[in-house]
Amino acid sequence: EFMQASWDVEEVQAKGIQHLASFVKEKSAFPHLLTCTEVITLAMKTHIDSLDLQVEGCTLLLEILSQALEQGVMMALDESVASCLLHTVRKHSENEEFLSMLCTLLMMVSASEVAVENLRRVGIIPDLLSILRRFLHNDKICFSCCAVLWSLAVSENNADQAVLESALPVTSAVLQEHLQNGVVAESACSALWALALQGCLTDSDYEPTAALLLDALRMNPERALLVKNGCLALASLVRLSETAALAILLDSKGSGIELIKDEYHLHLHEPGVAEALCLLMNEMVQYDEVMLDMRSQKVEKLLCEIKLQFPFS
């Protein structure tokens, strides 16, 4: 009430946020803090020029969201809150350190379908792509933005086809830049999978995207989730074009089939990986020429192994 009575006074909003922040560690205060997100974001929007207030507001929202996720509480931020966050993104689009924090916040928010829908409505995708282009070197920003892109691209009410198509080169650039950073590469592979599912690729994209995904698998063989999402992304590409299947077979850095075998043996006890590999192979055998090649590389032996390993799946 104190904050709402004096929206225009920056000091009141700053003191209010600081006072709310003092309750963060008290478990009994958590349900009440959940009701304050709109007040905090509105204070940030009203005093958008004050970087200090933006940082304090964003820090507090991150604390509240972290606790919510820990307790399994889904925070569905409404459209006005999403709009406030977008205003903040645009106003401070040059401030790398603050954007890193803000993108983490957006990633946590995107765990909720309602929040994703509201972020989509306010038109956040072009801003995410712009941030990625500008801060391609920043692993935290790339990780968070790719995670938000994934959530936006797989959302059921997707009306952003044209905008999403422009996301492919940027997402590929992120993966290329951070191939050796498993956490970022994992996030970028997920985003590419979502873009492939939405049919955001053209004929000239299939081969280079497949090669890039194979590179990610080679560079991060031990990361089960990356392997799984990378294979699902490849399966989506192969479903769309035989060019992608041939790119896997004839990759200049070595046979994609041998890579698939190696990944399976490395993750023998991961049903999710095995399932993704089977899905990829199932898409590949739809093409006669590809299937003949797979036979010559003894894929049947691998499939029998998988069947013995997971007889009840």
TrEMBL record:
Keywords: ATP-binding, Kinase, Nucleotide-binding, Serine/threonine-protein kinase, Transferase
GO molecular function: ATP binding; protein serine/threonine kinase activity
Keyword check for Nucleotide-binding: yes
Entries under InterPro entries matching the protein: ARM-like, ARM-type_fold
Keyword Mitochondrion: no
Enzyme class (EC, first level): transferase
Source species, domain of life: Eukaryota
EC number: 2.7.11.1
UniProt catalytic activity: L-threonyl-[protein] + ATP = O-phospho-L-threonyl-[protein] + ADP + H(+); L-seryl-[protein] + ATP = O-phospho-L-seryl-[protein] + ADP + H(+)
PANTHER family on file: SERINE/THREONINE PROTEIN KINASE, SERINE_THREONINE KINASE LIKE DOMAIN CONTAINING 1
Protein name: Serine/threonine kinase-like domain-containing protein STKLD1
Organism: Rhadina sibilatrix
